[in-house]
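ok trying this again, last paste got cut off
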Amino acid sequence: MQRILHIEQRLTTGRCVLRLEGPLVMTTMSTFEDAVRADKTRALIIDLTAVPYVDSAGIGVLVGAYVSSQNGGRNLALVGANERIRNSLRVAWVESLFRFFDSVSAAEQAV
């Protein structure tokens, strides 16, 4: 089972796209937290298309990204969250915090 999280960052005018590949779990969350903290753009788009699952620590770090975006007056969008991830967010009662999109381009137009 893959336990490595790769993050590709793409900056455009006022936006940052973080494309994650691998599970967002306790052992990989610090890499993601560092990338979120380093971002100072007006909009953060997190592409979860290649993330197979999240655990409670992964949910916590996504909620942390949400809180950080709210405190900084930034937009946050999640792209490509599969049903397993959506269900995990639903069970944790935090799904309603996030805006979901099917593609990065749709998220870029909305934020």
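PB: full thing came through this time. The chain is about 40% helix and 25% strand.
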